[in-house]
Amino acid sequence: MVKKEMIAMLLAGGQGSRLGVLTEKVAKPAVAFGGKYRIIDFPLSNCINSGVDTVGVLTQYQPLRLNSHIGIGIPWDLDKNVGGVSVLPPYEKSANSEWYTGTANAILQNMAYMDSFNPDYVLILSGDHIYKMDYEVMLDYHKANKADLTVACMPVPIEEASRFGVMIADETGRITDFEEKPEHPRSNLASMGIYIFSWKILKDSLLTLKNQPNLDFGKHILPYCRDNGKRLFAYEFNGYWKDVGTLGSYWEANMELIDIIPEFNLYEEFWKIYTKGDIIRPQYISESASVDRCIIGEGAEIYGSVSNSVIGMGVEIGEGTVIRDSIIMSHTRIGAGCVINKGIIAENVEIGNNVEIGVGEEAPNVYKPAVYGWGLATIGEKTVIPDGVKVGKNTCISGVTTAEDYPDGILQGGGAILKKEDGE
User: CA 265 to CA 269: how far, in whole Å?
Assistant: First the structure.
């Protein structure tokens, strides 16, 4: 049996429903980010940069894009004979087909995979955060404290702490209590959903609680460890970490990449972010184009004017088109004479000529006001928008639309057009 000191289990099954039409056809960790990356590239790159060479990726919702992106792990140097990266979907058992029903249930179902490496430690990660973190430093902290479980925590302003699971720790860092989204938080240490377990403790907790419905780390495993006298420690992390769980935070994190001195730097030599690189021709910026403070992916063709935006690979932007403060994902084509303000436009979208997106006043979204806000116009992948229409703010569009879908040529602020594809 090959022994590994620490293996990582990366939870990447999330639907990410708060990202609306962006996650209609793709799991949240596979959503594009920063022009050429996908969200899952960040925890995977952290693993290889931290010397963790065995990663199980647990998929569930819409796994196809994620599976083909990860492949056999070549971009992250995770194509190993022993260890490397393994995609672990829920599998059929003889009695019944069992979906992952909670974060810890997903880990429980892969006990045999973990056992095969007989690790000393297991690192549990989430596939939907943007950050750089050296897990080796966290492991050193875990060992120094003779901990059974270490929880990575981020200090947040106390007025924001009620949005998180909060850890209460003594002066040595030992966790004495925790609260899930407390109304009156007693601490500002927010759990990042990153755990290092000593393998014996994790195994024992999972097997003891295996019949618990929707088995979850925060709700079940942590309380069980605490109540049974285990040593729980909080590891304080002070770097950049962003949960891109809403359209607003996703848009913001992309926009922060193009700050003059970005808080999150994609270009550091010593901590590279790796991704699957398609072989694409170079970008082309025409004589009539103007580009200001942008990230632009390979193979993009720009004939218009783009500012303060993140443009993916193979995007085409027509002559006379003006794009500001927007995210345009790979292989989308935008016609001539368009104006786009604060748009999030997914992959493989076709936008006609003289289309205006992000116009007029804000109004609450008629379909899901909590999802579609922040003055953004969000367009799902493979959507088609006809020539000459206007689209307001806090809107969402998905599917092949025609002029008839826009009364008086406009989708008013807060409006929604959601068309099902054939066969759905």
Answer: 10
Please give the Cα distance from 3 to 200 (Å, whole number).
Answer: 14
Paired strand residues for 232? 149
- State the Cα–Cα distance between residues 83 and 117, nearest whole angstrom: 8
Query: CB atoms < 10 A from the CB of 84, how many?
Result: 16
E-assigned strand segments in 127-201 = 129-131, 149-155, 165-169, 175-180, 189-198
Residue range 259-310, pLDDT digits in tens: 877 777 776 777 878 777 666 678 899 999 999 999 999 999 999 999 999 9
Cα(11)–Cα(44) distance, integer angstroms: 11
| b/e per residue 102-111 (b: at least 16 CB within 10 A) | bbbbbbbbbe
Q: What are the structure tokens assigned to 284, written together?
A: 């082309």
Element (H, E) at 358: strand 356-359
* Token pair of 361 as six digits: 């006043």
Residue 251 is encoded by which pair of tokens?
Answer: 């848009």
Alpha-carbon span 248 to 358, nearest angstrom: 15
> Per the structure block, which two tokens stand in for 188?
């500002």
Task: Name, in order, each residue with C-beta under 8 angstroms of 362's C-beta and a sequence gap of 6 or more.
Answer: 375, 393, 394, 413, 414
Which helix (H) or strand (E) covers residue 309, if one does?
A: strand 305-311
DSSP assignment of 212-270 equals: STT--IIIIIHHHHHHTT--EEEEE--S-EEE--SHHHHHHHHHHTTSSS-SS-TT-SS
Under-70 pLDDT residues of the chain:
1, 13-16, 61-68, 71-83, 90-101, 267, 277-280, 421-424
pLDDT digits (tens, 9 = 90+) for 224-243: 999 999 999 999 999 888 88
CA distance 183 to 179: 9
Closest by CA position to 112, among listed 95, 139, 91: 91
- Rounded Cα distance between 58 and 254, Å, is 26
